[in-house]
């Protein structure tokens, strides 16, 4: 299977009920759209809904960092570019950029660290070997991409 770099797995439209009193999409819905992109990534990697049922395994987000670059308005079409930053036998580090579909501007980013969990024991466990092979294939393709400027950012007041 050909691995694209970055992955283009999710598109969505900003809904009227997502607009806040400032007249733009509320921060919670940026995260919702980006989380939908995570679900699409899990399906692509073979660790989505069917995996949960067959293997009683899933992922839990353990850390997240969201940046907001531009407001989105009602009705805007958006797309998400996704990349695998790193992984080990129990963890996946993934990064997503949310773009306005027509204008092309970057609206937000999200960086996550997710843990593989056995849902029966509720403990962190290694991914099965076939999942680790798939992760390695995607990581190899994504390693060729330039490092995103917003990856690994921390929150701080400038000059402090």
The CATH first-level class comes to Alpha Beta
Percent of residues in beta strands?
25-35%
Total separate domains: 1
What percent of the residues sit in helical stretches (DSSP H or I)?
25-40%
Total helix count?
Answer: 3
Please state the second-level CATH architecture: Roll
Query: Gap between N and C termini, in Å?
Result: 47 Å
What Rg do the Cα atoms give? 16 Å
The CATH homologous superfamily: Hotdog Thioesterase
The CATH topology is given as: Thiol Ester Dehydrase, Chain A
Low-confidence stretches: none
For the largest beta-sheet, the strand count, sense and barrel status come to:
6 strands, antiparallel
- Estimate the global geometry from the Cα principal axes: globular
Q: What is the topology?
A:
Elements: E1 7-13, H1 27-45, H2 49-55, E2 57-68, E3 77-87, E4 91-100, E5 106-118, E6 123-124, H3 129-143
């Amino acid at each position: 299977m050909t691995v694209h770099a970055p992955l283009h797995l999710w598109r969505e439209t900003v809904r009227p009920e997502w607009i806040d009193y400032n007249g733009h999409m509320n921060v919670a819905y940026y995260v919702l759209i980006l989380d939908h992109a995570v679900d699409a990534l899990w399906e692509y990697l073979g660790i989505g809904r069917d995996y949960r049922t067959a293997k009683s395994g899933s992922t839990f987000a353990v850390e997240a960092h969201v940046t907001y670059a531009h407001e989105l308005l009602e009705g805007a079409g958006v797309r998400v570019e996704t990349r695998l930053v790193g992984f080990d036998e129990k963890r996946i580090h993934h990064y997503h950029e949310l773009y306005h579909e027509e204008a092309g501007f970057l609206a937000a980013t999200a960086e996550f660290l997710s843990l593989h969990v056995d849902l029966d024991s509720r403990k962190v466990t290694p991914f099965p070997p076939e999942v680790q092979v798939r992760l390695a294939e995607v990581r190899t393709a994504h390693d060729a991409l330039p490092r995103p400027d917003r990856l690994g950012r921390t929150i701080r007041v400038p000059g402090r």
